[in-house]
Amino acid sequence: MTSSSFDIRRVGGRIGAEILGVDLSRELDTALVAELNAALLEHKALFFRDQQLDDADQIRFARLFGELTTAHPTVPSVEDQPNILPVDSESGVRANRWHTDVTFVRTPPKASTLRSLVVPPYGGNTLIANTAAAYRDLPESLRELADRLWAVHSNAYDYAEPPKTEAAAEHRRVFVSTKWRTAHPVVRVHPESGERGLFIGGFAQGIEGLSESESRDLLRILQSYVTRPENTVRWTWAPGDLILFDNRITQHYAPDDYDDLPRKLHRVTVAGDVPVGVDGRPSRSVEGDEAAHYTPLAGAR
Fold this sequence. Notes:
It is built from six helices and 16 strands. By secondary structure, the chain is α+β, with helices and mostly antiparallel strands.
């Protein structure tokens, strides 16, 4: 598939495309940015090989798609870089569960960029799932049920196992140092494309109106459609790669399969709006503030 100014090579059948012929270290004009945004809406995740960017380049590129958040609501940023979150295995950051970024606040991010600095010689890939394809895969009766459901997301979720290192334990303490709980529609309507996608993932802790066991079972069923192999794409990192993914209609996962080897990425995140369900109702806070220190769009509709 060829654009007027770059080539697009699909990576997965339902999600993901590699962008060829774009140097992200250069200034990009508005027409090119519009084409990239259109490609993002279609493919959900865009991959750029061998870009060799620095932090300033990554921030400048991410800012083309909107205002930026700070690094994270609780986790510290890279020193003197308030918009950059270090994703560093040596600091205990191993996000080996499917999730959509920061859904525990009312205004989760629109999109994220991930840039590789250090990659292990094996393992350490990133998997991304298309939640719109997952929604379309649901049987009609299950889609109709999902359209009416609301889930409560929280950063203080139950971990399946204790942290393996003191660094991981400290990261967990920092992560939950301030607690948020937010009710989001299980089916979110994408604000640009109008697509419906399953808005759940690792921070979704329960379904409103259902018991803990009922919630767990129903979320497991819905999540199984998200993680079907045909709805996912796997990216094998090389130093200098950058990924841009639409956080409103994807989940991602970084398998912890690289032993004690170092793996370091930098994440810069674009601020998003408040999710809206099929019935037009917006997400609402259950516990915690609007996280205005994190996102400039806090308090938006």
